[in-house]
Amino acid sequence: MRLIPAAAILLLTTLLATPAAADPGPPGQVRTDKGLVKGQVLDDRRQFKGIPYAEPPVGELRWKAPRPARAWQGVRDATAFASQCAQPATPLGNPQPTYVEDCLYLNVTTPRRAGRLPVMVWLHGGGNVNGNSALYDGAKLAVDGGVVVVTVNYRLGVLGWLAHSALEAGERYQSGNYGLLDQQAALRWVRRNIAAFGGDPGNVTLFGESAGAADTCAHLASPPAAGLFHRAIPQSYSCAWPTRTETEAETAGAAFATAVGCSDAACLRALPVKTLLEGYQEANPYPVAGADDVLPEQPRDAFASGRYHRMPIIHGNTLDEVRLYVSAQFPQPITAAQYEGFARQTYGADADAVLARYPAADYPDLRIGIATILTDFGTPLATCGHLDALRLFARSGVPVYGYQFADRTAPPLIDVPGFEEGAYHASELMYLFPGLLPGTELNAEQRRLSDAMVGFWTSFAATGRPKPALWPRFRSAGDVLSLAPGPRGIRTVNTAKASNCAFWASLGTTPRIRTGIG
Question: What sequence ranges are listed for the domain Carboxylesterase type B (predicted)?
């Protein structure tokens, strides 16, 4: 095969990335490659909501790669959010299910000041089953940090991540990665259009939390994502955690199709969304690796070998990740017998060693003991797993920065009486997106922490290095930056020691935990 010279690739990339010209009209009006949009102009920022980046994935386009949005005539109103993608009800902000498939829209927030600003593209969490870009107000990041913020809807659950061989006939892509392809389509929209909003298409940071972090990790290892982003911030999902294989994904997909009475694509596409949502029980709806060029191998293997998009990375988790899940599973205190039973069922022959390292006597509330064990090791959210990923990145030579959000006084997402939620999974989000939890406010010290985090995230987006310089580049476990309020709240810590990572490595085992955590 004849290789294309690097200079030619660079020239071609530049031509393809030529952005839409800025519209000379009012500041609330912008010309995209598909037509004019009119957003809101506020005192300190501009907001554009509900901009289509792909054609609605309905009818015959259900379970197909996204197609570019169609052009429109006149000026499109961009002052209201579009519908969230179809998803089941959840107690966390979505009390009613949504059955809308026409949902491939994004939102743009810019500061009022002009310039070729860094761009930050946000992938929301929710286990790739729930979530909504409209929940995340990018105002603080945009105004205080001087960046353009883009939040993205992408197909969820059964519509975004169902893998079935019947869906691949005549298609070029492995089924089960539709959500991933949506995200890449949104990034291509950013490359074509963001200059018209004052952003720099050559300086894009992809960041996401939980499932959004898992997807960010996958994009780092996805060849078609080359050149679509230039820095990455995966939050609270280890890039070293394995994702689905083709066999695992299609076995689950075949079981689903049988359960809803279908054996071919036509039958599946004819089913109502309600039927699909109610029948979908996939516990691990994450990218499918090893089946095609979208994700040709496990991300961990790509990072270990250096076969990925090398760029500056921030990667970290929270101090008490799994308390959120444990509190939901055990709303009432548990007994010593239940605690021991958890250890023996999960760790088998290693249970005695685990119970000796995490003795019940250390935990007045034994639910905290379970959460501590699972936050240290053995889940995609675990600290030792994040350290594993940080080491992989560091060994490949990229600038990487590790953090651990540690504010144990953060406002709770779910307030369980008598339970200390601590720095639970997703607790850092309201410090980057104030207002995420309606009715809650940060105190003065927490607001200062929020200011510092926004400064870290946006300076990294601008330069590839978080400022000020107190955050060291990761080279060892002692280089992780703890993020907490108050004096000495922001400082380096040794998370390997605190989370007993050497102990877990000595066991040489992985617990039997494969859940939808994240």
Answer: 29-504
